[in-house]
UniProtKB/TrEMBL annotation:
InterPro entries: Thioredoxin, Thioredoxin-like_sf, Thioredoxin_CS, Thioredoxin_domain. Signal peptide: none annotated. Residues 1-104 form the Thioredoxin domain. Belongs to the thioredoxin family. Keywords: Disulfide bond, Electron transport, Redox-active center, Transport. It comes from the Bacteria. This is Thioredoxin. The gene is trxA_2.
């Protein structure tokens, strides 16, 4: 999965022509590390329809602050430049796939 930063977020996410799931995470967050391999699998299986990127909130505080991220992992799906879905916390793959069904 590609990492995005405060600097390239608008270009990589908001201006994307397909939906983008942003995984807001941090190195110290155990649930974030648990959900990462699940997101890698979903990316490998559905990357043609849904792009998945990650943003380290410690290194990039601007975007998380702009979207009111207070708890991680926070998974935000952006479509046409707007937040289309929010998922908070580490979830099993089956639940994530159900939550993302509209986009994949």
């Amino acid at each position: 999965m590609k990492a995005v930063t405060d600097a390239d977020f608008d270009t990589e996410v908001l201006k994307s022509d397909k939906p983008v799931l942003v995984d807001f995470w941090a190195e110290w967050c155990a649930p974030c590390r648990m959900v990462a391999p699940v997101l890698e699998e979903i990316s490998a299986e559905h990357g043609d329809k849904l792009e998945i990127v990650k943003m380290d909130i410690d290194k990039n505080p601007g975007v998380p602050q702009r979207y009111g991220i207070v708890s991680i992992p926070a998974l935000f799906v952006f479509k046409d430049g707007k937040v289309a879905r929010q998922i908070t916390g580490a979830k099993p793959k089956s639940i994530l796939l159900r939550e993302l069904a509209d986009f994949i």
